[in-house]
Amino acid sequence: MNTNNNLLFLVHLPPPIHGVSIINEEIRQHFSAKYPENTLFLNIATSGKTEYLGKLHFKKKLISYLKLFYSLHKLLRSHCIRKCYFTFTPVGPAIYKDYILYLLLRIYKTKALVHLHSKGVIKEKNNLLKRVIYMDVFRNSDLIVLSPRLLSDLDGFRLKSVRYCPNGLLTKSPENFKYPKKEKLRILYLSNLIKNKGIEDLLRAVSLLRNESIELVFVGGMVDVNQAWFDNRVNRYGIENITFYLGPKYGLAKEAIYESSDIFVLPTHHDCFPLVIIEAMSHGLPIISTKVGAIPDILIDEFDSYLIDPGDHMELFRKLRQLVTNPDLRRKFGKRAFSRYEKNFTKEQFLLRLDKTVTDWVDESV
């Protein structure tokens, strides 16, 4: 990488802990260690808690926004920064905050490499103000997207240039693929509890199994649901005796949850590149998910997983029944998923890909 100028990273760092902040922390550690003299980082996260994600609390956030804008202004004035890696949020209220940051970069003639970690542009482009923002950012910035499959989300916009870089994670690998006999088979949902993640589809599907030898475990922070909503749905479907909500888990506690589970399910209706799927793969779990976002690029349907149409709780029930009743199939899917993780989605592979992408962009845009 050309070291004549500083490279600024505008990224969302923990807290709160979610997919993008986890990836960005990996990026921060890698680039600050490898290029300590030429990298600057500014944390642009303003939601300190999971339940605040995607919500705009003006009274609570206005001061933090102003401080953030001023911090960027000071950095750009005091350092020679001509290039910036920017994890721009293209949907929800955060787009307006990020666009002001983007305009500050433009004022100081700083080129941006915009990394899109989420999708939903195609649904929000009818909003006139957001459409103007999309046109400006996509036309004047180089983009990184997680998969060619996600490019359709940007249909209708002129793009300056696009690079592809799938995510990866470092997690603890399964211990020799041991499958001890258990009294109850554990079905795991591990992600923030958001309605469009298909929570109710999973509850309905499990209620149809009518199997007391299973347990359904939910792990994650509650975002647009609360305990009363969750309990109401669990009781409605008559599975209160086998369903457990454990709240958010991190570090070794989260690893222990994966290791004690038998099937991983993420029946999401709207997603981009869920890191929890990579985590489940790295633990050798058989997976059921949906054909949305880049998920079909991560998993291979009927080879290491089952991929269903979002919202189809009957198909989810049928696929769950196949895995619950067939331990050999669970082992086969789990081993194949782990092998695919090792070949494509480790932390080392991701950082090598991103390092090359960023350094090539820096050198060619000098």
Please state the second-level CATH architecture of the largest domain.
3-Layer(aba) Sandwich
Q: Which homologous superfamily in CATH is the superfamily of the largest domain?
A: Glycogen Phosphorylase B
- The CATH class of the largest domain is identified as Alpha Beta
Rg, nearest Å: 21 Å
Mean pLDDT: 92
Total beta-strand segments: 12
Account of the protein in words:
With 366 residues, this protein is an alpha/beta fold. The protein folds into two domains: 6-167 and 347-364, Rossmann fold (3-Layer(aba) Sandwich); 185-344, 3-Layer(aba) Sandwich (Rossmann fold), CATH 3.40.50.2000. Helices cover 43% and strands 16% of the residues. It is built from 13 helices and twelve strands. The chain has helices spanning 19-34, 58-78, 94-107, 121-124, 128-140, 199-209, 227-236, 251-259, 275-282, 295-298, 313-325, 327-344, 347-364; strands at residues 6-11, 39-43, 81-86, 111-115, 142-145, 161-164, 185-190, 214-219, 243-245, 263-266, 287-290, 305-308. A six-stranded parallel sheet has the order 2-1-3-4-5-6, sandwiched between helices. Strands 9-8-7-10-11-12 form a six-stranded parallel sheet, with helices on both faces. β1, α1 (19-34) and β2 (39-43) form a beta-alpha-beta unit. α1 (19-34) packs across α13 (347-364) and α6 crosses α11 (313-325). The longest helix has 21 residues, at 58-78. It is globular. The termini are close together. The mean pLDDT is 92.
